[in-house]
Amino acid sequence: MTDAATAPEPGTVYLVGSGPGDPELLTVKAKRLLERADVVLHDRLPGPKILEGLSADRCEDVGKRGGGERTPQPEINERLVELAREGNSIVRLKGGDSFVFGRGGEEAEFLAAHGVPFEIVPGVTSATAAPAVAGIPVTHREHTSSISIVTGHEDPTKPESAVDWEALAAVGGTIVVLMGVRRLPDYTGALLEAGMAPETPVALVERATWPNQQVAAGTLETIVDARDEVGIEPPAVTVVGEVAATRATVLEFLANETANEATAADEEV
Ligand SMILES: C[S@@+](CC[C@H](N)C(=O)[O-])C[C@H]1O[C@@H](n2cnc3c(N)ncnc32)[C@H](O)[C@@H]1O
């Protein structure tokens, strides 16, 4: 498969974003590098369709281990350096874009500190792609011209929480929450407490572009019930803001493969 004229330099690490999961949303560059890499280090977030397309003998799964624990990041960093020093060309494959809650920045810094050449290959982030395939634009001239992308992983009541929900409520615009399925009641509560209108539209998009994509829609007040009714599980993106209501206006003609797996909760938007 390797073409001497165009093969990646041996010893280079490619920090590649895979997009949300549809293999056709891999960039042309990501696809080429995946075909030619000596080793691909990945977790499960690139999704089943992309992972099934990789040759198992060149893959190392550095995602959750048997017991459900993540491979510690320092171990992944060390492995990248080790493989590069053996002269391999390596793809470090991350879901979405490696530089959006993907630890790509940490990996780049580690590689630079160890003198390992690397290249960053941006991917289509789920922060915008997951809403998009469900018919939700993250900006819309009639509703908002700003977007905040935050983690929902933290407890909003903790003083050390890095996300200031009160400030986000004041700014308005679209709020996109990654890693925010479990703590949905906490941060929707925080936004309501900060003064956001209870009828603010909210949508959850699970496994966007994977088989069995699911969407739950509602408002700040009803979305937790909608989540439970549909059975939304991670990975899912939460969209808070007027744009979330756009889905209801376009759904009938939205031809994305799995977009029309609508639920009763959709009527609430
Ligand atoms: C650690 S973050 C990684 C984000 C990723 N780097 C990106 O740019 O999309 C993991 C979170 O991304 C979101 N996510 C990634 N892929 C997704 C998908 N196909 N559908 C829905 N959410 C997804 C979920 O919020 C998930 O909890």
TrEMBL record:
PROSITE patterns hit by this protein: SUMT_1
Assembly description: Homodimer.
Stretches assigned to the Tetrapyrrole methylase domain: 12-223
InterPro entries in alphabetical order: 4pyrrol_Mease, 4pyrrol_Methylase_sf, 4pyrrole_Mease_sub1, 4pyrrole_Mease_sub2, CobA/CysG_C, Siro_Cobalamin_biosynth, Uropor_MeTrfase_CS
Keyword match Transferase: yes
Protein name: uroporphyrinogen-III C-methyltransferase
Pfam families (UniProt xref): TP_methylase
Signal sequence annotation: none
Example of a GO biological process term: siroheme biosynthetic process
One GO MF term: uroporphyrin-III C-methyltransferase activity
EC primary class: transferase
Lineage: Archaea, Methanobacteriati, Methanobacteriota, Stenosarchaea group, Halobacteria
Keywords associated with the record: Methyltransferase, Porphyrin biosynthesis, S-adenosyl-L-methionine, Transferase
Enzyme Commission numbers on file: 2.1.1.107
